[in-house]
User: Which sequence fits this backbone?
């Protein structure tokens, strides 16, 4: 009986130790990090579009975000989210943008991406931007 109790205690200790090592090394619920992929102002230098990639974890896929602001925006004003796409296989090449004209931005994206947000025009940026979407 004593050996059985000792064995259960050892197995329990090893299980807890293994779980701690597993959680520390695999970042299962780690906070996502944001990487800036591209930032570009329009032809007049009035509005800026920024594309970032957010890392995923065990519960969320990686995603690509596109934001719009004024080129010389005040840090107190949050950039306006325009486009958000996600997938387990997402790469920076899956989404791109290009200024088509003074007031139009073309956003191209992989048709296999899951789209969470897709605005038709900006709401908070002076001199509105119209967004045109093309799937690849």
Assistant:
């Amino acid at each position: 009986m004593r050996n059985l109790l000792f064995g259960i205690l050892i197995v329990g200790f090893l299980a807890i130790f293994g779980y701690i090592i597993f959680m520390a090394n695999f970042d299962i619920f780690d906070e996502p990090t944001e990487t800036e992929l591209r930032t570009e102002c329009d032809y007049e230098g009035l509005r800026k579009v920024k594309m970032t990639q957010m890392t995923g974890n065990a519960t969320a896929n990686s995603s690509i975000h596109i934001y719009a602001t004024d080129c010389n925006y005040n840090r107190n004003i949050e950039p306006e989210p325009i486009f958000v796409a996600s997938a387990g296989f997402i790469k920076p090449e899956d989404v791109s943008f290009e200024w088509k004209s003074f007031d139009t931005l073309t956003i191209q994206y992989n048709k296999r991406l899951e789209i969470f947000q897709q605005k038709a025009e900006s709401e908070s940026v002076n001199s509105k931007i119209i967004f045109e979407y093309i799937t690849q």
Notes: The first helix runs from residue 2 to 26.
